[in-house]
Amino acid sequence: MKVYYTLEDFKKLDNAVVTTGTFDGVHIGHRRILTRLQESAQRSGGESVLFTLFPHPRLVLQPDLDLKLITSLEEKVYLLEKTGLDHLVVFPFTQEFSKTSSLEFVRNILVNAIGAKKLVIGYDHHFGRNREGTFEHLKEFGPVYGFDVEEIPAQDIDDVKVSSTKIRKALLQGDVALANNYLNHEFMLSGFVVRGNRLGSKLGYPTANIELKDAHKIVPADGVYAVKTERIADNKVYTGMCNIGHRPTVSGVSKTIEVNLFDFNDDLYGEQIRLFFVKRLRDELKFNGLDELIAQLKKDEKHSREILG
């Protein structure tokens, strides 16, 4: 997959099959659209293109809105690379761009810049200034600008019964298993390993403290989770357990994200890692002393290893 962060770097295609949208989470509903997009491109001998916007339009148009995203831009690119998509255009969304009419968007960007010969869109898709553009508009523009348009039927998307709102709700409740079912992949957090107070090492469970790269990234509910961790430096994956919360047993104040990697002894400080959440083990609890905490950590480790195989 080729990724472009400006249209100036994109060379107009002879036969582009295009879809547009934010695709936050790249969930199972999005994948239905991408599958149809790629099937259409293969049938016509064309190339598949996803045109997406960054930052998320709602963050620009409603700056006071505390919108939490399922995927950061980096995570979205990571997931889309695995779908077989040919081209990803990440277009900068600004207040000025938000004034672009639906006609200008279709003519200037999708047709003249990208070379769209076919558009594949989800049902009830809107685009352009004030979301004025609709499927009906695209059917009118098609004969004028030389492209076909296909709308994914509502039933095809409704069959999977998923939405970004449902996924966010599941994550905020700590139900990562349900969120993963909606996503059709494991929810991830990406960040850098920063120095903590090293208390975990004293307890026999050294942890990597994670500082998220994206302030708008959603974080699952406080608790302990079985996770897989990818070390981006070498793409190796390790199993472990993650605690999200305030560490009440040791009078923690700030909220932290800490992961203990099983059978791992290297120094990770300053490195970037990805956490893949598999299952929630329990709530974060306050124990009566460190001995009780260590006993519980041993149970958590045993449970995590059973879950993660």
Keywords:
six-stranded antiparallel barrel; Elongation Factor Tu (Ef-tu), domain 3; alpha/beta; six-stranded parallel beta sheet; 10 helices; elongated; 309 residues; Rossmann fold
Task: Explain what the structure shows.
This protein is an alpha/beta fold. It folds into two domains: 2-162, HUPs (Rossmann fold); 188-308, Elongation Factor Tu (Ef-tu), domain 3 (Beta Barrel), CATH 2.40.30.30. It has ten helices and twelve strands. The protein has helices at 28-44, 57-61, 73-81, 102-114, 135-145, 154-158, 164-172, 176-183, 199-203, 290-308; strands spanning 2-4, 16-20, 47-54, 87-92, 116-121, 148-151, 188-194, 208-212, 223-231, 236-245, 256-261, 272-282. The strands form two sheets. A six-stranded parallel β-sheet has the order 1-4-3-2-5-6, with helices on both faces. The protein has a six-stranded antiparallel barrel with strand order 7-8-11-10-9-12. The longest helix has 19 residues, at 290-308. The radius of gyration is 22 Å and the shape is elongated. The model has no long low-confidence stretch (mean pLDDT 91).
Q: Please name the fourth-level CATH homologous superfamily of the largest domain.
A: HUPs
The biggest beta sheet reads:
6 strands, parallel
- The CATH class assignment of the largest domain is Alpha Beta
What is the CATH architecture term of the largest domain? 3-Layer(aba) Sandwich
Number of helices: 10
Strand order of the largest sheet: 1-4-3-2-5-6
Mean pLDDT: 91
Task: From the 3D structure, determine the CATH topology of the largest domain.
Answer: Rossmann fold
Protein structure class: alpha/beta
What is the succession of H and E elements? EEHEHHEHEHEHHHEHEEEEEH
- Low-pLDDT ranges: none
Tell me the number of strands: 12
Number of domains: 2
